[in-house]
Amino acid sequence: MALQNRVDPYGTIFRSPARGTMMGNRGGAIHNEAREIVRRYASRRWIARVLEFRGRKRAVMSPGRYTELFFLDEAVALAAGHRPCAECRRERFRAFQNAWQRWKGSAAAPGASEMDVEPHEARIGPRGAKVTYEAELGSVPDGCFVEVAGSSYLVWNGARHLWTPEGYAGKDRLRQGTAVAVLTPRPIAECIRAGYRPAIHVSAANGSAD
Predict the structure, then answer these.
(1) Tens of pLDDT along 105-129?
(2) Got the DSSP string for the chain?
(3) Does 142 score more than 70 pLDDT?
């Protein structure tokens, strides 16, 4: 049976044999010795990492080690509330940091801890529910996720792309004036609007928009 270590755009951790293109964690171990998920996060530090870095080898869900989580691509990781890792994705971390600074209009670049506070409040509500907010579909920046009729869609290059664990399964043109629930936490969406461009799975380039 596949481990419960895949993450969808809502931030839900689920089981799937599909492979992701990005790994991440939520600040520590959120699994037990039986490699079962027992809590949603260990700290506010939710990050997105590369699958391979400097030849390091890890046994997935080792006792007492941080829980490895996997995403289809970076857009899914961002929608779930994860930010770029400052070690293995240093260049992308700097780009995210600079976008945050532009969004805030700050004189100095924010530190990692500062960028972990607002997204945490914007991704999980008081009762543990996913936080969303309403916006007009045409105003949502490329790289963000929205919910339409109970399904999650990536907004990308003038179309919305249906997410599945294996990849994006078809797309259609953005319908201007449509109100949608935005899944990507607002602070992260603002960084995307300010110029941060997430890495997108190759399946988003396939097919034509109807």
Answers:
(1) 999 999 999 999 999 999 998 888 8
(2) ---EEEE-TT--EEE-SPPPSEEEEESS--B-TTS-B-SS-SSS-EEEE-S--TT----TT-TTSPPPEEESSHHHHHHHT-EE-TTTTHHHHHHHHHHHHHHHT-SSPPPHHHHHHHHHHHHB-TTSPBP-EEEEGGGSPTT-EEEETTEEEEEETTEEEEEETTEEEEEEE--TT-EEEE-S-HHHHHHHHTT------GGGGSS---
(3) yes
